[in-house]
Amino acid sequence: MKIASREKIMTEMKTVEVNFMEFVRFTAIGGFITATTLLVNLNFKGFSFIFKEKTRTYWWLFLTLTVIPLLLFLYIFTLIFGKLRLGF
Which residue spans traverse the membrane (predicted)? Predict the structure, then answer.
């Protein structure tokens, strides 16, 4: 009797862990989308303030300064959640 109940508890714990990790993962994705929007907006305002009339000439610099931090964040996100098997 103890073995059956212990196995049942262990299976339920795995389900809770998977559900919690899915919640954390999707919350992180939502946070990433929000942070991306804010970062691009703040970068553009700061970029426009610094370069004023030459903003349109240095569009490639703005793109680089915006994309590199986002790619680094995605890389870290992949390292954290990439090795977890969430049952998909």
Answer: 20-39, 59-82
